[in-house]
Amino acid sequence: MTPDGRNPGPNPDNNIPVLTEIVELETQVPAQAPPVQAPPHAAAAAAIVPPAPREQGLAPTPALPPAGTDAARVMGEVMWRFQSEWPALIEAQCRAALESRLSLLTEQLAADLTRTLEARLMDWLGAALDDTLAPQRRTPPR
Length: 142
What we know:
Layout: H1 40-48, H2 70-138
């Protein structure tokens, strides 16, 4: 694992940060520090801050444009495309990422499985040969 918490691997795109330590948060409220005296120029700076939009008599901007406008039509088309095309796009991207990551995992699993099966096959063949050759070894030569 690298110092920044990433797993090194053969594929640089496969470096995913991993949580390596648990940090317990304090459950007690920290003691409040004594109030800091503001410098005299801070009062002058505070006087320059403009009032909030509501205090100026301005209403907040609505999230959606007024109905019947070009902006509302464009927003509707964008939202429709977002809702209709986005799930398929996300699924395709996720599937591609998953398949690219799984190919490496599949290769590793296949190699491990092959080594394990080869070792078991060698053990089995050795035991079978020992069983077959055991009677020949017991018979004294004449």
